[in-house]
Amino acid sequence: MLNSQLSTSRKPLYETVAERINFLIDQGTLRPGDRVPSIRKLSHQMQVSVNTVKEAYGQLEDRQIIEARPQSGFYVRPQLLEIPSDPVFNPPELLNPTDVNLNQIYHRVMRDHLNPQLLKLGISVPDCSLLPVDKLNRMLARETRRYPNQAVSYQLPPGNLRLRQQIARRMLLSGCTLSPDQIVITSGCVEAVDLSLRTLCRPGDTVAIETPFYFNFLQLIDDLGLKALEIPTSPRGGISLEALDYALSHNGDKVKACVVISNFNNPVGSSLSTVDKKRLVEILSHYQVPLIEDDIFGDLAYSGERPKVAKAFDRNDNVLLCSSFSKTLAPGYRVGWVVAGRYQDDIERRKMLTGVATASPPQLAIAEFLANGGYEHHLRSIRKRYAHQMAQMQGAIGRFFPAGTRASRPQGGFNLWVEMTSGVDAMQLYKDARKHNIGIAPGPIFSLERKYQNFIRLNAARWDKDIESAIATLGQLAAAQLV
């Protein structure tokens, strides 16, 4: 049976072998410190070549799942404890929508990005050294020469047609069949979500959100004068559908929208399964609550298989799908988009009122890159790098942070959610870290009620000796609070 599965898999054979070993580790058959089968033994057991097993073990080493010991073989590495996957479902807490009241720490964390002295582990941005900067710049120059009038003219909503055509083609990988006319280009994903909230809600309305939740969206909800209804989120499985259903059954008449990051959530890195995405759409449709879906990290799945979006299961035109190329290609280009369905006319009108249009040259450049720049090849490269660097950071946290520290295990993106022991205060750690020129994102800014006092979010998009040293310093500062 195993050999049949290996031979019919579409994945490279070494990946299938690596997944088999990883499965045994995840299930506890092989525990930290156990010796894994030798290369020749596994080659014989699985009837694959020695080189295939070597490739598989090399991949598992890169992900810091196993380690080689000289003259001894391969062993399961001691792993950082994982944050429990089941969210706490406490119905009484879900009955009271909360006024958002953020303090200045949010602004300070964002301003950290401007400080050239800080090692920026608190901002969720890609590593520019992994982006196709030179190719994009050449395409930007070439396309503005090729279309000089378009380059200096407004690309009024819905935006550049060629770009929308390319996005529509890519959306087939997400399970959506769209026409270019259904896509509206925006200035990043944040504007797409902002336009969606402004279209659906009025001041005083309630929005259902995940918790913990991306702090920029919390600030946006605050600025719009909305209330937020926090729904617990699992570090692996995403938003609790049981809790959401319960909350809507008690607050359904007040809730005007629900905002969910469906794939590789920010900050915890969780994803809804395909089954749960379908159920999410069904629950919200039942209560007639529109879903604003953020899929900005969807292209960064470590497995290489692009996950579907909840929009793929939308049969009642109840999902507004938002995304951008800020995490994969060029954050500074500010090119995003929204599929708004029956709300598209309102979205386009609000877009013209608030910003007229998204800048034309970046739209031209990204359209050309999607058509002829090797976007899929680029994605394959950075997915591998981010998976490797995530494992490196998790391993370093396991080595340097106090015993009892736990972390999420995202399967895509580059956000790592870290739970420290209860005696460590994330806000104090944030202040202490800045004195050492290290920027982090403290957990309390991801909640309306400052729930995550001993959590931090770290950016694993980059890994080098400086970052490893910074992780060691953070571990020392956390340990100092326990003395």
How are the elements arranged and paired?
Layout: H1 2-8, H2 13-26, H3 39-46, H4 50-62, E1 66-69, E2 73-76, E3 81-82, E4 98-99, H5 105-111, E5 119-120, H6 133-146, H7 148-151, H8 161-170, E6 183-186, H9 188-200, E7 206-211, H10 215-223, E8 227-234, E9 238-239, H11 241-251, E10 255-261, H12 274-286, E11 291-294, E12 319-324, E13 336-339, H13 344-354, H14 360-372, H15 375-400, E14 406-407, E15 415-419, H16 426-435, E16 438-439, E17 441-442, E18 455-459, H17 465-480
Parallel strand pairs: 3-14, 5-16, 7-8, 7-10, 10-11, 11-12
Antiparallel strand pairs: 1-2, 4-8, 6-13, 8-9, 12-13, 14-15, 15-18, 17-18
Number of domains: 3
The percent range for strand residues is 5-15%
In whole angstroms, the N-to-C terminal distance is 55 Å
> The CATH topology of the largest domain is what?
Aspartate Aminotransferase, domain 2
Shape: globular
Instruction: Provide the CATH architecture of the largest domain.
Output: 3-Layer(aba) Sandwich
